[in-house]
Hints:
single chain, alpha/beta, TIM Barrel, eight-stranded parallel beta barrel, two-stranded antiparallel sheet, globular, binds NADP nicotinamide-adenine-dinucleotide phosphate
Amino acid sequence: MMTKEKIGSPIAGCMRWGKWGANFSTMDYRKMIDFCLEYGIHSFDHADIYGDYTTEEEFGEALKEDPSIRSSIKLITKCGIQMVTANRPSHSIKSYNTSKTHIIQSVERSLENFGTDYLDVLLIHRPDPLMNPVEIAEAIEHLKQQGKIISFGVSNFLPHQVNMMKKYLPIQYNQIEVSVICLSPFTNGILDNCLAHQITPMAWAPLGGTLLTDDLHPHFRSITQTAAELAQKYATGMNEILLAFLHTHPSGIVTVIGTTKPERLAQAKKASNIKLSREDWFSLLRAAKGEDVA
Ligand SMILES: NC(=O)c1ccc[n+]([C@@H]2O[C@H](COP(=O)([O-])OP(=O)(O)OC[C@H]3O[C@@H](n4cnc5c(N)ncnc54)[C@H](OP(=O)(O)O)[C@@H]3O)[C@@H](O)[C@H]2O)c1
C-alpha cells in the first residue's frame, strides 16, 4: 500500500549515510529511519551513485528488517550520472546517460536495492547535454504504467531545460542547490519557473554547507549574526532561521537535509513551521548580499 502523504520538509538526505560519510551499519540506518518516522519525517533522498552505488542497497537492508515501514515512507532516487568506480567497471569516463535503456535499467536496479516494487519519485540527476526528451518521456511513461515510479522530476535543471522537458512529460520536482549563500535560484528564473508550472523545488545543501563550517569568513559572519538575532526574536535556533529563509518563499521549497545526526533532522522539522516576516527575510538577504536591495 502506498502512502498518500505529500512530500514535505524536511526530506532526509541519505548521501552521507553510507560510504560517502558516516558508514552506517544496518542498525544505524534503521535507527535513523525510525527516528525520522517518530518525528514526522517520511521522505528519504537517494541517488543510484551514492556511496559509489552502495547506499541504496544498505538502506534497503534496513528496510528488509521491517517490511511494514515501506508503506510509511517516500523513496526518492535519481539516475543519469555514470561514475567511474570499481563497482561499475564498464564505465571508463564520468558521464551522463539519460537514454531510455539506462533510465529503465537504473530504476530496476534501484528497486532491487531497496527491496521494493515502486519508487515514489525518480529524478534525472543532472541535465545531460545529449538528453533526448522523447526517449526520457518513453522511459518514464513505461515505468509509470508498470507502477515502478509514482512521480517524476529533475535536478539541477535551469528553466529552459525544464520547459523543454515539460513539452514531452509532466515534471513535478526540481531538486536544486539553494540557500542563503546560494541565492541564484531567486533571480535566475528557477524558482519563478517552479511557481509558473507548479513544480515543487527541493533544496539541497539548504543550510549552505560552507556556512556551517567556515565561521571565520567575514561575509558568513554577517549572515550568522543576523540569523542569530532572528533566532532570538523567533525563539528558535540559527539553523531553523536559515531553513525558514527558504520555507518563506512562495514556491513551497522543500528542504533536503544531509545530516547524519538525528537531532539535526528534528531541528529541521521544527523549522518547517516557521515563516519569516518580509522585513526579516530581507534582513537575511541583505546580510547575504552585503547590501540593501536597489
Ligand atoms: N541533487 C543533487 O545534485 C544533490 C547534490 C548534493 C546533495 N543532494 C542531496 O541533498 C542532501 C543534502 O545535501 P548536503 O549533504 O550537501 O548538504 P547539507 O544538508 O547542507 O549538509 C550536510 C552536512 O553539513 C553538516 N551539518 C553541520 N551542521 C548541520 C546542521 N545543523 N544540520 C544539517 N547538517 C549539518 C552535516 O554533518 P553531520 O552529519 O555531522 O550533521 C553534513 O556533513 C544530500 O544528502 C543528498 O540527498 C543532492
